[in-house]
Structure to design on (261 residues):
């Protein structure tokens, strides 16, 4: 009888230990599953953020801290598939190469504009440069993340908004692979290929941009002085609601002059 009671107590103890071990095992599995879900969610969020940055930065924004990954210039209404009356004809720059200087905060950047690959864009920026449009304008936006580094400039009022009275197209010389090498000068736009305007962006690192909506016109390139942009980027970005990867540069940037010959 005594042995029977002892055996019963030992059996109950074994069952209790087994149940405890099972609970610990189940708890460990739940924690592992939770950690995996969190890790996957974080990776997905990082991919989405990078994609958003690459899709919106160039179309224009209402506030310099608005998050976006595409060079954009927002206007009040979607532009028609035609150019504004004051936009010059592409023929005025076709087949020509223009060289000149873009001065930011007193630092000169040598630039080259390609009228062979982007005649409409070259004609527009030659006209704007000759007319002194860029003098005193700002570079309102800086974005810096993995495979994406741009300084965006040339907004009419310095707020990232486009000018509804000066829009043009189409997109020219857009790379099919979405690669915009460091030193690329390209044209910012909004949601359509006829929403180009006065804004442009300079890549200070090799940058990938989505091409599924038409891409962005490569106007030309920086031939010297790119370190001036790199230094601006190095000073950082004013933190916004989503952090400090896309917003106004900490260093206020003014265009002293932009000449093309």
């Amino acid at each position: 009888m005594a042995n029977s009671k002892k055996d019963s107590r030992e059996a109950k103890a074994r069952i209790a230990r087994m149940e405890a071990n099972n609970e610990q095992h189940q708890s460990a599995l739940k924690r592992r599953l939770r950690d995996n879900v969190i890790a996957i969610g974080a990776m997905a969020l990082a991919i989405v953020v990078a994609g958003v940055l690459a899709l919106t930065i160039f179309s224009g924004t209402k506030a310099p801290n608005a998050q976006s990954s595409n060079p954009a210039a927002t206007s009040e209404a979607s532009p028609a598939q035609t150019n504004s009356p004051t936009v010059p004809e592409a023929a005025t720059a076709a087949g020509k190469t223009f060289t000149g200087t873009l001065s930011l905060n007193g630092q000169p950047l040598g630039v080259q504009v390609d009228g062979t690959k982007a005649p409409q864009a070259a004609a527009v920026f030659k006209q704007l440069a000759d007319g002194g449009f860029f003098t005193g304008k700002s570079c309102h936006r800086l974005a810096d993340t993995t495979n994406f580094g741009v300084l965006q400039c040339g907004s009419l009022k310095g707020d990232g908004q486009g000018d509804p009275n000066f829009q043009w197209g189409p997109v020219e010389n857009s790379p099919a692979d979405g690669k915009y090498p460091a030193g690329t000068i390209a044209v910012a736009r909004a949601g359509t290929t006829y929403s180009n305007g006065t804004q442009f962006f300079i890549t200070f690192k090799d940058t990938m941009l989505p091409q599924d909506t038409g891409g962005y016109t490569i106007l030309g390139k920086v031939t010297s002085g790119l370190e001036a942009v790199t230094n601006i980027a190095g000073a950082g970005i004013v933190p916004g609601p989503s952090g400090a990867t896309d917003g106004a540069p900490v260093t206020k940037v003014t265009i002293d002059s932009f000449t093309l010959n």
